Structure formats: C-alpha cells, structure tokens
C-alpha cells in the first residue's frame, strides 16, 4: 500500500501541483483510507489556512475540489463534512458495487489499525496497541527459530499440511500454560490460529449467522465490533464498569429482544480489559457465568492482554471449566506481533466445528512459527521475558501517569496493564486530528460500537513517556476547549464505573 | 487430533472390548469425522461380516450400538444409513447448538482435506491434493529462510505488524511474476493471504452476503463449495467441459433467478482445472468474459495449480486486464504447502475492501515466510524448481496413465497437469470405502456441489505410480461391479466434455 502523504508535513511549494491540489489530495487520501470518517467535519477554512500557512482562498479551492469529487458535502453555515457511505460508492460499478455497497464497514473499523502501520515520523505512538519493538526480545526469537529450522525438522514442518488443529507440540505446551491460570484444557481442546483475531473470527463465524445478536463490552476493541458488523451481526453493547459488565443492562438487552432473536454469545475481555485495564473480580466472574447459564449464553473470553496481569486474577474459562466458555489468546501482545500465532481453547463438543471453520478459512496454520513458540514455552523463555517486561512496564506506567496528570489529564480508570484510559476533557477525535502527522493517538470514539464523540483516549504506557507528546496534547486541548464549551460531547466516565 | 482407528486394519481379538464394540467404534469415529456422510449407507450385514471375518450376528450387534447412539438409522428392507444433520446435534446443547445447528456444513466439506492429514500406513496417497514432500526442494527453502532471518531483518519482519496488504518485497516480486503470464498488476493491487484458501475466503466475504448466489465450476473443489455453503450462499454449479464452462447453462442459471437474486460472482479455475486438468482456450476465455460483461459478473480466477501449465495458456485476468477479474494463487501446490502463503490480485477499486476483510480476519500475515518467498522469486529459484518438477511429473503421468489403463480404468479428460480424472466404472465412494485404511483416494462425489454417486475419482499423478494401488483398485472394482449393475450411478463423463 502506498504511504499516505503525511498530513502534518509542509506543503511542497515548488511542486507541479498547486497548493490547493495538494491540500485536496491529502484530505482525499485520508477519506479513502477512512482515517477521516463519514460525517466528520473538515477543519474550518480559517483553521486549515492557518495550519498550512496558505490563504483562505486556497483552502476554499481545495474544498471545492473535494466537493467536485463527491468526497465531502457542504452544510449551510456549518462547514464541510465527509460524505457518509462513501466507501460503498467509491469508483464502484456493477456486481461488486451492488454486492458490497449494501453493507459498508463502520468507518472506525480499520482506522485505528491502519494507524499502527503508519508511524508518523518514527516517533513513539501513544495510541499503539502492542509493545514497542525495542521492548521485545529478538535474540530469544532468533534462537527459537534457528532451533526448529534445522534440515529434517524444517521439512516436517513445511513440506506437508500440518495437523488442522495446529502443531501438536504447541498445543501441548499451551495446555500446560493454561493450567497455570487455572484453565483446565486438554491439548485436544486447543486450536491454533493466525493470531487471536483469527480465533475470534472462527468462533463467531462457526456459531452465528448474519442477523444474530451478540453481546459485547463497551468500551471495547473496535476490530471486534467491525468484524461482527461485517458478518452482518447485531452488536449489543454492554457497559463495562471497573468491576465488570453491567449485568442489569445485559439482562435488559436480552429481555428487549424477541425470543427468537435473543443473543447467544457474549464476547468479553475479562482481564486487563482493552481499553480500560479493568479486570473481573472473582465475584463478578461468578455472576457473569450465572447469567450466562440462566440465559443460555456462550461466553467468548478474549485474554489477549493478560500476560502482564497478576497471576491470581480469575479467568471465566477457569471458573467455568470450559463448559460454556471459549478462551482466546495469542502471542502478538507479548512476544512477537507479526508471526501471527494465536489460539483458542474450547469445550470438547465445539472443537471439530472450529477446526472445520479454520480449514475453510486458511486450511491450516504455519507449523514453523508454532513450533518455535512451543520451544519458547517449553524452556520457560516466555515466562522470563514476561517478568522483564512487567518490571519495565511498571516504571513506564508510573512515569506516564505523572506526565499525564501534570498536563491536565485524568484517568477514567485506575492505571493498570499496558493501556491507560485517559480523560482529556475535550473531544479526542478533534485532538487526534490536531496531532495527526506528529503523534498517533487512539480516540475514545474508536472503542464504541456506535460512533460518537468522546473525551477519552487510550494510551499505551510503554509508548507515552515522551514529555513532548503531553505538551503537544495540552496545547491542542487548550485550543479546542473554547469551541467545546458550546457543545460538549457526553463524557464516557459513567460507562467505566 | 486423535488418529482414527484404521478401518482396514484387523480387529483386535484379544482386546477388552468385544468385536461388535470395535466395529461400532470404527464407524462411530468415521461418522463423527464426517468421512462417512449423512445419508451414506453402511455396508450390508453380510458384506461387513465378510470384510471383518466375523459372524453376521456380531455385525448386527455393532449396528445396534450405532442405532442406540443415534448415529445411524435403519430403513426398512434397505439397510442402515448414517443420520443426516448429525454434526449439528452431536452432544450439543444450548446456545451453540441452536446457533450452529441451523446450518451444518455439507458432509463432504472436510472429508477430503482430513484425508490429507491422515496418510494411511505411510503409503503414497493417490487422492493427495499437493505434490508429495519428497518432490519439494527443502535446501532451497532452508536457504531462503536463513537468508531472511538474520538478526536485524528478522526483527523488522517480526516485531511489528507488517503492511496489512502484505510484505511489499513479495508483492513487487509477484507483480513481475504475474507479468510473465500476461497479468498486468501493480504491486499495490496485490494482497498476500494465508494460502489461496484465505484469498478466496476474503473475496467472497467482502463482496457477498448470506443468501447471495454464486456460480461455480462443477466438478470443482469441494472446499470452495463448503465455504460458500458455510457462508450461507446459494451455490449454482455450472457444468465444466474440457473447453470451458457450459455458457448456455450459465445463462440459464442467471435467467432462472429472480432479478434481485441473480448471481454476482463466478468462481472458476481457468488453467489446469481441479479435478479435470482442463484449461480454457483463448476463445473460451473471451466468451466467459463477454458473458461476465453482459451479465455484470465479477470473475474470481483461482490459478492455484497453474505453475505446471504451459506458459501460453490464457488467464482470464490477463485478457480482462483485471477489470472484472480477481486473480488468486499461492505457493502451496508448488513450493511449500505449510508456510501458507497465497495472494490475490484485484481491480484497484476493490483492493482496500479486501485489505479491510483481511484485517478483520487475521489482522496481517506473517512477513517472515513472505520475505523468504520473495527471495525465491527474485533469484529465479521458483522457476528452476518448476522446470525440475514439470519434467518429473511428465514421466510420472506417463507411467500412471499406463497403469490406470492396464487395470481397466479410462480417463474422462485428457491427462494433464497434476491431476487425472479417472473413470472407474463403479461408484468411487464405495471404492474409497473398500480401500480405506490402505489407500486414500478422492471419490468424484467430493467434486460435486450436491452429493451424488459418481464413477469418477481424482488421482494425483505424482502419488499414483504404485502398481499395488492399481491392482487393489481393480480387485475392489470387480467386487463392486455385481452390486452396481442393478442401480448404476449416473456417469459424470458428460459433464467434462
């Protein structure tokens, strides 16, 4: 994919294209990339002119070009707005248009992830979803890979399709690892996947059909919302508080559905919830499972971020003994993001169905990296790495919390784990816009099932230790406070307890 | 996954379980594994008794156990049949049951693939879908992997998410490779995937919704039928002749659908079609594209098997210049099955949508193996490997054809490429059943969208050179000819020209 022109970079005043064309091209790119949402307002003409050091006339010319391209629309006395549903229509014709136009992805679907792949100017990314590369242990990975790619073993792992459930050695090692957090799963109950994302995809595709309702945490992970929406499912957001989901609200959502349209599945992050960092108490976990029993729900427990959690925190799958729980996790957030190794552990009765869906989606998964990770687990290398990262993260968290508070931010949930859930007091989409090109942040709107303004943002404690970021954020906040006063977005604090 | 008890192996007469229990357990396993289809008839009591050298009384006791377990049903004067829809009910309860029971996979979905993972007794598998491991070039792969996993490069490929469209070096190399078969695709039009299976999955998920109609070749690849069915799509099979699809039949299928339910997509293998080995002529390719234009179809061209084809054979994506064609291929059938690297090349207007679906299904793909394959392409290693395999395959094909014909089989399509489409004269599901435990064959029923008897089977020329296989097959054919005469299955020969 082409890199987008960096929005914050200065215009090229000696280029063949005019300044208006350059400005139009940048917005057009971001609209196509969906980092600017349908319905989003472009900066005012005056603000845009100031930002690019051009005359208002140049900006009007640029916006006129976007109008002519059908990318934005003018609303009387309110300014220019990105047209809704644009991706369904963009240059499409015929079959593909009709086929896909009917169900465009929510705009926030991939904006956050796309951001992850486009580090602005190489600076740390406070909105990053993973550990930064220099916190990971390359020699450990190189050693493990070398270990499993000697001649004959490389052949056995590469030259024929592996076990459709995944490399048996890794599944054995995972069964032992899961026992360590109280989850009693046989290797035969474990299926490896292309990262935890693939595991969640397999589970929902196997068990639900288009039109089915699914309960999810809100705030929560936008990729999960986007996938469910893309599969045609009805997403029912359950407010997630600091001590667990709002069970009364969950009951109301279930009661509110006609009997044959009741939700069958609840997807949740129980430990170090993304983005709030909250974890279920033992009592809350028990209540969730009681409700699941009463309402005949299957619970999908996404445990992706929990390597860095204190070991005593309860997993739903441990309490429930994998009866009506499917456990999902992976190695992207602790060891190696781009080997794409994840897994699920499921009730025995569901395993075959998940293996079948895996076969239909990717046939098998690469055994080479799975075996390398088995080696890491078998030799205790993961455990030691986790200990080193946890110590480093504790220090980073303490420093980041000080910086955030010194620059006028508060924490909407107690700081824990990798992510902080920060209240900035102003709409964080506006802040993301203002900082774009310098710092990538993850605005709160990306953690809601339905797009709406939010004063919250998610930060990564490991990548938010640069005081320059917090100063830039404070400047942007102050600039936006005036405009904000007139029409303040609803604060999300209530949602998280 | 547990290995199934090998059906052809003798019963254990000193075991703690009775002979009836052992026979029942073997059938139960195969029903659960779905290598015995819902609706399939169990052997007659007399035949089963003969096969296992037990008394008919023992067989009746075994079948009674299967009846009691709800796995089979007795039909008056016709015998015992595997119960339909069994997987939807198997030990299920509650949410998952209701959710998934409504749409069980077709039974043939994974039977063929499961077979690939369970080589019977280590003998060559005539029904195998890939090149056998000892035809592949392990030193070539080991060298490429070593080349890209030196310290810094391993870090760049592993420690952060890669480009969501896939490793740029591989996409550049693929663009050059595609130019070699006349397909003019920029690297920006190429998206890497977890094997070609994943590419096909991404395309259908992105462009269609449950209930949509899809045109497919018949005979064709059962995993494709199964995936479409699992996604809730209506599969419209188009008879595939030796010189291309039956366009008149395709028109009738389109005309026969109400206007708003017309198919939008046609999925086809244009070169070295699986299982017939047929390739489109230039004229036929032109006509397919004319029909696609007239009927506003998008064509998905699965070019997975074409490495071994003569270079002059036309691709639809070449003629069409990727206007209304999506091209899909991969490396599993020529270089390395279990690295799981495939790709698609698409019209520019569709690329973003496919990248988004990839993000929602697996986030990214592993850059390590993608870079190793880029190395192979850049240094001409793939091309030289293909030349060696092609020469070896030509010899294997000649030998296999001689053996097949000497043992009374005919070829329903001229022998070409990796697969032979062999007419045995008797129902090949019965043959597969009779040979089970000794030889894995791919019965013709697995290549039909709707399960029905077929006298055809697909063989892999590289793995069918063992004269013992052809002798065993001839014996089995003769045994089944008598029973066959009364109710011969429709021969499929008409379908393939």
Model description:
2 copies of one chain form a homodimer. By secondary structure, the first copy, chain A, is α/β, with parallel strands linked by helices. Chain A folds into 3 domains: 19-108, Arc Repressor Mutant, subunit A (Orthogonal Bundle), CATH 1.10.10.10; 112-135 and 384-496, Aspartate Aminotransferase, domain 1; 138-380, 3-Layer(aba) Sandwich (Aspartate Aminotransferase, domain 2), CATH 3.40.640.10. The first copy, chain A, contains 19 helices and 14 strands. In chain A, the strands form 3 sheets. Chain A has an 8-stranded mixed β-sheet, sandwiched between helices. Chain A has a 4-stranded antiparallel β-sheet with strand order 11-12-14-13. In chain A, strands 1-2 form a two-stranded antiparallel sheet. In chain A, β1 (72-75) and β2 form a beta hairpin. In chain A, α7 packs across α16 (367-378), α10 (195-207) packs parallel to α11 (222-230) and α18 crosses α19. The longest helix of chain A is centred in the C-terminal third of the chain and has 26 residues, at 381-406. Chain A is globular and about 70 Å long. Mean pLDDT of chain A is 85; it is low at 1-7, 85-109 and 486-497.
């Amino acid at each position: 994919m082409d890199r987008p022109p960096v929005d914050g970079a200065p215009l090229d005043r000696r280029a063949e294209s005019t300044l208006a064309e350059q400005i139009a091209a940048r917005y057009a790119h971001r609209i196509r990339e969906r980092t600017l949402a349908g319905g989003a307002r472009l900066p005012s003409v005056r603000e845009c002119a100031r930002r690019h050091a051009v005359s208002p006339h140049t900006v009007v010319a640029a916006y006129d070009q976007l109008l002519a391209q059908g990318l934005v629309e003018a609303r009387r006395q309110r300014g220019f707005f990105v047209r809704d549903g644009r991706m369904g229509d963009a240059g499409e014709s015929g079959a593909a248009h009709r086929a896909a136009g009917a169900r465009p992805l929510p705009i926030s679907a991939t904006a956050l992830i796309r951001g992850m792949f486009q580090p602005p100017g190489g600076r740390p990314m406070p909105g990053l979803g993973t550990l930064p590369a220099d916190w990971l242990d390359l020699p450990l990975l190189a050693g493990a890979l070398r270990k499993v790619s000697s001649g004959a073993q490389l052949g056995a792992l590469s030259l024929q399709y592996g076990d459709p459930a995944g490399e048996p050695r890794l599944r054995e090692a995972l069964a032992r690892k899961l026992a360590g957090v109280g989850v009693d799963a046989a290797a035969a109950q474990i299926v490896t996947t292309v990262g935890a994302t693939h595991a969640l995809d397999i589970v929902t595709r196997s068990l639900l059909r288009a039109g089915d309702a699914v309960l999810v945490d809100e705030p929560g992970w936008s990729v999960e919302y986007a996938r469910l929406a893309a599969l045609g499912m009805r997403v029912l957001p359950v407010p997630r508080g600091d001590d667990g989901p709002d069970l009364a609200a969950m009951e109301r959502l279930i009661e509110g559905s006609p009997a044959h349209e009741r939700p069958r599945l609840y997807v949740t992050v129980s430990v170090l919830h993304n983005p709030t960092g909250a974890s279920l108490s033992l009592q809350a976990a028990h209540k969730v499972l009681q409700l699941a029993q009463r309402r005949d729900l299957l619970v999908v427990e996404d445990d992706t971020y929990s390597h860095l959690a204190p070991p005593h925190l309860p997993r739903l799958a441990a309490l429930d003994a994998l009866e009506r729980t499917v456990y999902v996790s992976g190695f992207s957030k602790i060891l190696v993001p781009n080997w794409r190794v994840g897994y699920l552990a499921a009730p025995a009765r569901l395993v075959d169905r998940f293996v079948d869906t895996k076969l239909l989606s990717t046939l098998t998964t690469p055994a080479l990296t799975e075996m390398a990770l088995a080696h890491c687990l078998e030799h205790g290398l993961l455990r030691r790495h986790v200990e080193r990262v946890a110590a480093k993260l504790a220090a980073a968290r303490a420093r980041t919390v000080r910086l955030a508070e010194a620059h006028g931010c508060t924490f909407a949930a107690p700081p824990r784990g990798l992510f902080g859930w920060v209240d900035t007091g102003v709409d964080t989409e506006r802040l993301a816009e203002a900082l774009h090109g310098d710092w990538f942040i993850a605005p709160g709107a990306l953690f809601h099932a339905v797009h709406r303004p939010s004063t919250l943002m998610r930060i990564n404690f490991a990548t938010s230790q640069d005081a320059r970021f917090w100063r830039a954020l404070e400047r942007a906040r102050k600039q936006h406070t005036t405009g904000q006063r007139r029409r303040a977005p609803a604060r999300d604090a209530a949602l998280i307890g």
